[in-house]
Amino acid sequence: MHPKVLISIISIFCVQFSFLNASIAQEIKSNSKVDTLQVEVDNHKMSMYVSGTGRYTVVLEAGGASNHKCWRTIDTAIAKIAHVISYDRPGYLNSEICAKTRDAVTVAKELKQALQKSGYQPPYIFVGWSMGGAFARVFCGLYPESVAGLVLVDPTPEDVYARVEKEFPELLTEDSIYMKELLASKNRPGERGENIVFDSSMNQARLSDATHSTPTTLLIAAYGKAPGASENDPDNPMNRIWVEELIKWAGKRPNIQYKVIKNSGHHIAKLRPEVVITAITEMIEKLK
């Protein structure tokens, strides 16, 4: 082949390759761009953070005392295959305080209105972490036709604290101190409001289970719930009871698969983000 011809072919290939890389980069940039929305619900504004494209809308529900930033380890990856929405419940970050009771039913109804007003229609895949798991379960119970799949990331079991109080009351000493400080505080309105009605929300989650059979993936952290130096000890009674209660709950549910993540603490999305990304990705693939 003539050298000039070879050089021309190489030049064309380089131009095409550069264009392809630029296109891929632009697509990744487009998918990872986060739009911030302010949606008014019940006379208060809620902040929502939206990115990605796809048939499904993945809704990320933060845990108690947490905001949308707890999902920053996974939302960019999920945005490549689906719409992703995280948000701040009333009283957190830029979401305004709401006078309504902050129980799980209220949270779910407000979120449904916010999703509708922002134009993001079902089917949804809900992902709930810690106390956010109760909120996600109640949403499924209220709107089963809107939710195609549920991923629970070490959700709070509704009976865990009652059982610990009965069997190992000394383990709740720090929790009791924390609750007294929280209830007396004035600078954590979202967290305070949700904890005031914690028991009601857990009971609402329990009752909601009877109204839906949403395909569910349950990820259980082996440790990270116990206070103090025993936090990372899977055999600590608090950690052990948490795991046992979730496995017991899973045994009563249809259409569920669960996995104990042996090398992770409570915040699985932060400590083992690939585990959560895989669970969501597999749920999307299963639903196709």
Describe this structure in words.
It is a single chain. The protein is built from eleven helices and eight strands. The protein is α/β, with parallel strands linked by helices and 288 residues long. The protein has two domains: 1-32; 34-287, Rossmann fold (3-Layer(aba) Sandwich), CATH 3.40.50. Residues 2-30 have low confidence and may be disordered.
What fraction strand?
15-25%
Structural class: alpha/beta
Helix proportion of residues, in percent? Answer: 40-55%
Oligomer: single chain
Order of strands across the main sheet: 1-2-4-3-5-6-7-8
CATH class of the largest domain: Alpha Beta
Pick out the low-confidence regions: 2-30
Number of domains: 2
User: How many strands appear in the DSSP assignment?
Assistant: 8
Radius of gyration: 22 Å
Looking at the overall shape, the CATH architecture of the largest domain is 3-Layer(aba) Sandwich
What name is given to the CATH topology of the largest domain? Rossmann fold
Major sheet description: 8 strands, mixed
- Terminal CA distance: 49 Å
Number of helices: 11
Tell me the name of the CATH homologous superfamily of the largest domain: Alpha/Beta hydrolase fold, catalytic domain
Question: Which sequence of SSEs, written as H and E, runs from N to C?
Answer: HEEEHEHEHEHHHHEHEHH
Give the mean pLDDT. Answer: 91
State the shape.
globular
